[in-house]
Amino acid sequence: MSLAVALRRAAARLLRGGAGAPRAASSAALPALGGARSPVRGLQGRELTGFLGIWGGPEAGGGGSWWFRCAVSSVSGPGLLVEQLLVGGGRSFATGAVPEEVSFSPAAREADGSQPEKSVGTSDKDVLADRPLKLLSGSSYLPHPDKEETGGEDAHFIWDEQAIGIADGVGGWADRGIDAGQYARDIMSNALTAIEEEPKDRIDLTRVLEKAHSGTTVKGSSTACIIALTDQGIQAISIGDSGFLVIRDGCTLFKSPIQQHDFNTPYQLESGNSSDLPSAAQVFKVPVASGDVVVAGTDGLFDNLYNNDITAVVVHATRAGLEPQVTAQKIAALARQRAKEADRQTPFSSAAQEAGHRYYGGKLDDITVVVSYVTAFST
């Protein structure tokens, strides 16, 4: 597949909507990039107010891999963002909401010195105020009812008011007599060790995930999502269908997109090189401000609750002055309630129906929720 075709398809998916995305009336064909990291214009639609551009080019090291970033803004929503790597002719497109202010990497901007740093909209808050920020985090874990005795197959960590991580062990390994949760627990433990080895002001999550993956040798596989707070805001790396939301003033500022090969077949890391690799993970940078709330979870959360369900709990909890752990417990409890309901449409049932399956109701699963309040350090 040529890069031009890949970008065109990605842009078409962006404009069709999805993941709460605004729809555009039309789009023009995207020209080829010619292997240069330069912005390309030509994405138009009456509902679009700004096109941030598309950057792309050959990945360092070659091997037939390409990277690209694409973003647009709209009247009705905060916008859409794609950042993905095309490896050896394979492809994986993922979409998500752009935060109110999003910056592309310096390498992308330097390709065209005439282009200033671009952002989508403005914020009522001073993003990254003068005082440094921290994450006040709490978690809740509800194993699948049938897996309570073994502890379930999810794992997570919270580290030093700066980083969190979640993983969801792939349950199919249990059919082969393998504890599907052990891989998830080990990769999170290794990720925590790798973070502790990083400079606190320059945590490289790509390196963290690579170290965690290479250091996890037990049989099994899992999804993974690791989030760290830096001077530049929230940085995250995610592979599979574990992910996170950033909520500001009662609205979803950003939601990470899922990666799956097919319906209910998420990307997953496995010991060795027989499955997806850390290089396939998505990397996100989201500016945040004091008062924002980050909600991370495994698919047991996001399969059963829509964004507005989660946001409603967060709004109620923060207004009531509840601690992050209590908020996480309330979100997890609601997700478990919806998972048991057979007469309600859920994100999982919607996705199943779109994939051609007759399914209605929630999905019982392990549920992990980590809630982090973005807070300024006291003076």
Question: Which descriptors would you attach to this protein?
Answer:
single chain, 379 residues, alpha+beta, six-stranded antiparallel beta sheet, five-stranded antiparallel beta sheet, globular, disordered N terminus
Provide structural commentary.
The chain has 379 residues and is of the alpha+beta class. The chain is built from eight helices and 17 strands. It has helices spanning 3-16, 106-110, 180-196, 205-215, 299-302, 307-319, 324-340, 347-354; strands at 48-58, 66-74, 80-86, 96-97, 133-142, 154-159, 163-169, 221-230, 233-239, 243-248, 251-255, 260-262, 265-266, 269-270, 282-286, 293-297, 367-376.
Beta-strand level of the residues, as a percent range? 25-35%
| Rg from alpha-carbon coordinates | 20 Å
Largest sheet features: 6 strands, antiparallel
**SS-based class:** alpha+beta
- Can you write the helix and strand succession as a string? HEEEEHEEEHHEEEEEEEEEHHHHE
Q: Between the first and last Cα atoms, what is the distance in angstroms?
A: 54 Å
Number of helices: 8
What is the total tally of β strands?
A: 17
Helix percent band:
10-25%
Looking at the chains present, what oligomeric state does this protein adopt?
Answer: single chain
Mean pLDDT metric:
76
pLDDT below 50 for ≥5 consecutive residues: which ranges? Answer: 1-5, 14-69, 71-124
The coarse overall form would be globular
